[in-house]
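Quality-control log, excerpt.
Job 1 of 2 completed; input and output follow.
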Amino acid sequence: MRGQTADKEWNGKEEEEEGETAGEDEDLPSFPRPSPARSGNSPHHTSMGKGGPLHGLQNCRGENYLTSGASAAVVDLLPPSAGGDLAAVCSWPDEMRFRYRWSSPLHYANTPGVCDFDYSRDCHNAKGEQDMCVVGAINNYTTQLMSYGDSSAYNLTESLMFLAHFVGDVHQPLHVGFADDEGGNTIVVHWYRRKTNLHHVWDVSIIETAMKDFYDNDVDTMIEAIKMNITSNDVRQWKTCREKSVTCADKYASESTSLACDYAYQDVEQDSTLGDEYFFSRLPVVEQRLAQGGVRLAAILNKLFSNSEEESKSGSQFLI
């Protein structure tokens, strides 16, 4: 799986050389497993710093959509330092990329320059190992979390933190971009006057500009404004998926690839200057993907952790 974050962190030039080790599980992608600890033994985390990747924040603020059962399970699994707040550990998988070298390709998936995602073709790491992409990661950690409440061999605290982050990643269009430009990381652009790359524009710059111009540099205010524009029909449509896989992550990846072609890459060349026209036409896409990520993560967690009555009321039976 491939992962892109701010600037040029995801392309794996250093990380992927380390490779990944795997512990096999029946019918599961072969992901490494850190210690089978629960929340008290999870690695420490730090909150998302200024200028860090912002595209996953909305997923981690989707508590309004959680059932009481799911909310209780999330609080139970979070490390004590999170204070019961999933957003507090939203950036943890990015912080762990250099410690858990095997996890770097799990942040993304690349297509061979085409505007559709195909799991069998696109979900692999630089060594060609299958299932090592963001879609495989979502499937894997969702499956691990199905063992919650039982005696699990997995570190379910880490499974939850990985899942929350990767659902955000798969909704960022350039996390399912083209292999030859590393999801926009090698496309140098100017965001107004600042030199950066196209991937960073979609990870950070569009959101930071919106926060500065419209939300007094307050991400919480921006997220609340996005939530206010989500209708019940939106929630119902975004949660609906009848694929027969473990999750609907293939669908989310396909959406991102299409949006990457139609919006992220559109009218962009090396050394392009991106300004108001690009910003105002792409901001609605970014905001919608933030909203979809939050709704869908909550639906996954509701499916995993709610009782049947709560699940029926939340509509999450259609998600997994």
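Job 2 of 2 completed; input and output follow.
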Amino acid sequence: MLLVQLLFICTILFIAWCASAVLSGTGRGLAAEGWAPASADHPGRRLMAAEVENGTEPKNCTAPAVHEFPEDIFTNQERKKGAVLLHIFAALYMFLALAIVCDDYFVTSLEKICEKLHLSEDVAGATFMAAGSSAPELFASIIGVFITHGDVGVGTIVGSAVFNILCIIGVCGLFAGQVVLLTKYSVFRDSLYYTFSVVALIAVSSSKGTNVTEKTQNKIKGEKEKARRNGERRKGSGAGRHRGATNKLKWLVSWPILLLLYVTVPNCAKARWERCFMLSFILSTLWIAAFSYVMVWMVTIIGYTLGIPDVIMGITFLAAGTSVPDCIASLIVARQGLGDMAVSNTVGSNVFDILVGLGVPWAIKTMAVNFGSEVQINSKGLVYSVVLLLGSVALTVLGIHVNRWRLDFKLGVYVMVLYGVFLCFSILIEYNIFTFVNLPMCQEDL
């Protein structure tokens, strides 16, 4: 299963790289060489400036986010000759590290907190459990707002949302091995809350800046994240039944992370550390922040080296890397015939990602760090991607209805095709194929 996950994530990256190689000289390049909009029309774009003999001449390109991170030990030319493979391995390893710290420590500490506070399952699912399952996306969004000042965080949220609603449901339909019946009420209820969230995101992303007051009007449904927690428990209980070479390889690869977390974070699932759940919560949160920082750093370098914009890296590679563990959990639940739980798992995660994953860092930036300021969404193509996200919800529900509320192989093929169409259109939009939406990224010999 580990090899399948790695192969899938690398395939997504390969598709994004191929698309960038094909399209880099078409619409996006023509926009940069031809009509160049004034910087006032793109307040979120940071234009580079080249020193010439007679003064400063602005370039019609955007400063890469790689400048916001520590200097890499490899030059851009060395990375293009093969050193970028080390960065890809580091990013994949951070995906694994985030999955381990969230499942084994962070979620466990949150469960203990819920027990001490005597919270109901719905309330716990809507608050603490949701934070546990979506922590990587949340910290990626925080890093995008406060460090890179770019669109990698928003792209990750949007990409994860599409991956969850299309790719995960598609995988469940293709590999569930049985026809799983879905409940009309559950699907409509979850889709309705999800639609409200996407509409709110469209409203704030279509403006020049993002104001925090526009997205505090929606609430999160607790039953969805309760389904996620139950699905992860089933995933953990089933892993022990299939011991083999793959599991041994996964343990060997994960051993450094397991040792690091074992030494630094008390496991409150054990009796002797049960009272240290708050310490476990704090330390695991710090590790999630550290792993997320390295993850976004590596992905930014990979995108810069391969010439892939931050938005596309967020929609494809980061989204797949942070959501593949959820995909496996939903597939295990679907194989047990619990279709409503599998679908609620995907939709509930999306609601939290959009409203909290974007709302929290935007609120901190505009209300605490710099009161009254705005968070700029650099790429105007993200607005179109969010609209495509809303369309994917409608088409998915329509497909489920036409398929008579059954999750089967046909529905799986249908939604996987929709996922491919979304990726194609998002990449084409980002490269200005249909209309000019943003400036290209500056390429330098770093």
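Post-run check on job 2. The radius of gyration is 22 Å.
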